[in-house]
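[Archive record]
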Amino acid sequence: MNKSVSLSALVIAASVSTNTFAQGSGTTQTTQLEPIIVSAGISPVAADEYGRSHTVITRDDIEERGYATVQEALEAQPGISMNGDAPSNRQIRIRGGEGSHTLILIDGVRAAAGDSEYIFRGLDTSYIERIEILRGPQSVPYGTDASTGVINIVTQQADTGFNAGAAVEIGEGDAESAYIAYGDTKTQVTLNISNRYDRGFDYSGDGGESDSSRWQSITTKGSFNLTRRLDTGFTYRIADVAYDLDENADGFGGRPSSDNESDYVFDDPSESSEALERAGSGYIEYRPHDQITSHRVSFNRTSNQSDTVTDDVTEVASYRLQYSADRVAVAKSRQLLSLLVERKTDRGGADLPDRQTDSVAVEYTGWLADDWSAQVGVRHDFNESFSDVVSWNVASSYFLANDIRLHASGGRAIVNPSFFEFTGGTSRAFNADLEPEENQGFDIGVEVPLSGLSGSVGVTYFKETLTNEISSDDLSAPFTYENDEGESDREGVELAASIAVNPSLDLRGNYTYLDATNADGSIEVRRPRNELSLGLTWRARQIPVTINGDLRHVRGLYDTQFWEPTPRPTEELPSFTTVDLSGQLDVLPGLTLTGRVTNLTDEENKEVWGYATRGRAGFVGVRASW
């Protein structure tokens, strides 16, 4: 095995669970696969080379499985838990970490601003090319907030020539999207527009008004080859979000109090909120004549506004140097050294001082032997507001003679206290003694190709330890946050398998077992102990029809019952199983009819105590490209 790894191994190495078989053709086309590149370090890494556990959700996966939003695509992926009190307020956790410990990127730019957590409210998939899930501490390339993993959402790429498309869907609401793209040997430009309205349901479960949401966005990006040695590019997106809410009876802020679950959340037609997300980036990259080095300067800016946040801003300016130690072109190097120099500035509102962090990181990515790759990195953050910290990553991938891939990784990552935690909801440093949280962990796994079944099976064991975990028991301002003493442990196992039974039928399955506890030994809430997903994709032989089904089972999910008096108990929610069904019919080349049903069995699938969840919902649509 060498860096031009066999295509069957690339299928396995692409992720713990990625199904990389060609879609819609009626045949398995492993001989036509291109190596998958993941944004997994200071420099991008080929999937077969990357030693960390990861998943890539492709555009084919999104279309075949009927994923309407990014949060739907992320549900039940190995190591991932997504939940919240409403579709417009969902958190993502990787391997039992906090929601603020997962860094969300869109085209490499931070989706959240001001050192805060990103909340999923309806991020549309109509313009998504792929979604990369990177598990484990990732601070070396990404800095703070990448403590337990990174989700990088890559938007649509331009093909050769002019291309355009549109899609419409109706059902429990409506969705419209359109794109136009142009590409040639020197230029690639795309523009995407989308609108998604969800009629919603009554979050209180009292039979009141439906709580709706609307997501509207414009996304564009481009890259330009100015000369043989000089490239430049940009990205920009703006998203406008409006959503309804219901109120809870927790007795604070003038609200009523309740002593039972049925009265805890009540219908309130007057409750609503809005948010505005803006993010952009620009870069310029220079390669000398020999191309053994590459110099890239970039600037990213993210600005988020909402009813509760006036204007959070994050700006990142960076310089990246790549050096090919084996003296070939950087793009072909088997021994790549990278240097990153970065300045990150966070703003959390007009009354708070800016935070500035200057960072230096170095990373090695390469092949130690024909079958053995490694990535090693270290980063030093010079924090203006907190103590300086050092984070590190190490990962390795090794191929046995029969294409079995062994992989292992470890690392240390840091999450700084958020502005809200630091101030406690006031305009001053109410919790000035807070220290950054530190996560340290490792994983080890094996991925085995099932050559006789055209598939793969993988298993990964992970263990992570969080120290200085920040927590609060307050329910009204000013909030007192403290660093917990002791260690919060999270360990578990991720299993995944995919099998092409025949050219018409693919089967897949994921399972995650997680044991996550607080420093005092109590169970961590909103992190299911057991999560299972099973899926199949069937393609008709005589007609261009594809049917997809996905089952998700959740057991061992705990949450706090806030209507109870202090100390409020943490109790297990009822286990649930949901089934989603989708299908598509290729009417003509470039014209596809689509349909999907979510929660086919109308199962009650409660994720948070007191809040209702959506029942069965159906949608039909059409997708066209030319």
The domain at 7-625 is CATH 2.40.170.20 (Maltoporin; Chain A). The chain has a mean pLDDT of 90. The longest helix spans residues 7-13. The chain has one domain: 7-625.
